[in-house]
Amino acid sequence: MWRCEGLHPRPRRRYHPARPGCAPVGHPAAWTTTFACGPINPDIMYMTDAWASVHISTDGGRTWTSVNQGIDLHSGPSGDAVPVFSVRIDPNDPNIVWIGLFRLGGIYRSADGGQTWERRTNGIVEGEGLTIRGFAIEPGNSDVVYAAGEIASWVWAGQEMPGREFDRVKGVVYKTTDAGLHWRADLAKICALPRLGSEPDLFAEQMPAFQHRLDHGNAFPV
After folding, report:
1. Are 131 and 103 spatial neighbours (Cβ–Cβ below 8 Å)?
2. How many domains is the chain built from?
């Protein structure tokens, strides 16, 4: 992981040498999937790894600590992987953090800055095969949360398959109005994975070029 200060245009190539103002910092994860920075204190950072949990840094990314207390869903060949895929800091309250799991349909909420987690999956029907790819939170109301999920057509059978694999996926957007105590599908049977846009106008993007707008829970195509 690199930390940069100042404006740095996006490179054309995926890999590039460090630029002036960029310096390497700690990187505890093998497969970083999501990164989030505190809205009030930018030195507070969260990083997820689809096999090695969620990590938190309080010193701008120089050191990281794994925070798994309360995450009770595990996967992998040995059954001890903590597959956290996505993380979202509540813009209304930075102590509230949401994480979504890879291929297990798990959603967890923390009210103490990630130190402890509580599972919030009542109403999530897919379970295994569902990856929670992102969250959006209503401005001024932390109880209203949207979760975007990708539903795989493959499930783990105990061993990897040789060669290249392709998976035809579907998407779903869940909504809660009580901070995750209950969820309901707002957009179901989407042909591809959804990706939530920014608040207050929420957009669930599908591939290749279709979008739905979520107007306080009322979905319509745009």
Report:
1. yes
2. 1
